[in-house]
Amino acid sequence: MTRRVSLFVAAVAGVLFGAGLLLSGMTQPARVIGFLDPTGAWDPTLAFVMGGAIAVYAVAHRLILRRSGAPWFELRFHVPERRALDLQLVVGAALFGIGWGLAGMCPGPGIVAAAAGSMDALVFVVAMLVGMHGRHRSKLRWPAV
Predict the structure, then answer these.
(1) b/e string for 27-51 if b means 16 or more Cβ within 10 A?
(2) Do 127 and 107 touch, CB atoms closer than 8 A?
(3) N or C terminus of the chain: which is more exposed, having fewer CB within 10 Å?
């Protein structure tokens, strides 16, 4: 598959993902914060969105596994294989969770909300990109746990 087709498929998938986030209201930090506050004004919307996504993925995954041969738009399936739980993964997951709880958004909804004109989301995305760039430029390598 050519690089252009691969980029086009990725762009279509991203647009569909973003549309789903907008449609479900997951670009609104108040929804996420409401879900993370079970003792206050709890909002179960995120649970329903995640449940719907898991149900769709479960069906699609089974159908894909039944097919023989290569994927439609790639030469082979790319399955992540993380064999070790390392400090970098643990710290990254903790930072992601802390940021999600503080800001009420994670990268996908943040990018969609920023594109829709939310100034808070734009600040979030810029801060996220600065952090990603800083991590990429650092030479820090963490040992396995």
Answers:
(1) bbbebbbbbeeeeeeebebbeebee
(2) no
(3) C
Q: Does any domain span residue 142?
A: no
What pLDDT is attached to residue 58? Answer: 93
pTM exceeds 0.70, yes or no? no
Read off the amino acid at residue 133.
Answer: H
The two tokens of residue 63 are 């159908």
Comparing 75 with 126, the larger pLDDT belongs to 126
Structure tokens at 28: 């609104």
Which residue type occupies 40?
G
Q: Look up the domain containing 19 and give its range.
A: 3-137
> How many other CB atoms sit within 10 Å of the CB of residue 53?
13
